[in-house]
Structure formats: C-alpha cells, structure tokens
Amino acid sequence: MASETVHEIVKTIAERDDTAPEQLEPPLSAVVDPDALTAVLRDTSGYVTFRYRGYIVTVGDDGTVTVEE
Known about the structure:
By secondary structure, this protein is of the alpha+beta class. It is built from two helices and three strands, in the order ααβββ. The chain has a three-stranded antiparallel beta sheet with strand order 1-2-3, with helices on one face. It starts with a helix and ends with a strand.
C-alpha cells in the first residue's frame, strides 16, 4: 500500500499545482515517512491527516486518499 498511496498523493498534488511530480518541493518524504504511514494504517483502523504544500491530505486505512485545500 505504501508506494501506491504515496504515488496517489504526489500525483494528485502535482496535478493541482500544475507541475511534474518529481518537481514537488519539499518532497513528500520530507513531511511524512511513507513506511511509518503504512505501518500506522496497517496496525489501526481509521485515517491519518497531515498538511503538505498547503493541502490537507487524509489517507484512510483502506488506501483512499483525499486532498483538500
């Protein structure tokens, strides 16, 4: 789930900011540890919310990703 979820977050925000995913600064990994995110969602039920590039990102334990301004 980690790589799919991280890819979805980066892809969604890059589209909203009209930039290439590899050009996002700071990189997502500077804000949230992808392995820790996966571990938390695997070991609990619910969701994790964090801020990245001015967006509110919510990741559910089922892998759903929501990005809001």
